[in-house]
Design brief:
The protein is α/β, with parallel strands linked by helices. It contains eight helices and eight strands. It has helices at 17-24, 36-45, 49-62, 73-82, 105-115, 137-146, 157-160, 193-202, and strands at residues 2-5, 12-13, 68-69, 86-92, 131-134, 151-154, 170-174, 188-190.
Length: 205
Amino acid sequence: MRIGIDFDNTIACYDGVFHAAALERGLIPADLGRDKNSVRDHLNGSGRKDDFTELQGYVYGARMDLVSPYPGFGDFISAARRAGHDLFIVSHKTRHPILGPKHDMHAAARGFLTDRGLMGQGGEQIPPDQVFFELTKDEKVARARALSCEVFIDDLPEILGMDGFPDAMRKILFDPEGQFASKTTPYERRGSWAEIAADFARERV
């Protein structure tokens, strides 16, 4: 089975990262909530939207060392590869931040995957030539279609709902915080990589 996987907030977990980076840069008070939305709302609400925009580029380009994979993702790779599935990372992000230093955010994401042992030529890693960072959402969907993905895993319902994915593709909504638990969606919802790994370990090629 050919499985496509989003990157930001699906593989890469930013819990506490924006708070730490904003503190490092002196942008927020220490007692502010640790989630990204609290940081964004504080800066936007105090007329510093550009500071938040630049902060995003700083995190995604220079401080991926603060970021961790979601628990269980490495085990998912191992289980899926052993079961004979092909894994592809298909994500979208601009190459350089809109504001601030021109970090290469594609290279930073690849560095994150390599440094965490998730991407490489090993039998329990995702090969580098199966990792794609596209510039737009439409290009992301087109890439998934070109790869003939039979499954796609993403944290955003609006991405899964876009036209252009392969017909009959299975769509899995990654929802570790349970924010969609009380909402009706047409997608399978999973709260952890352990759940997803168990699914595909059973569905051997």
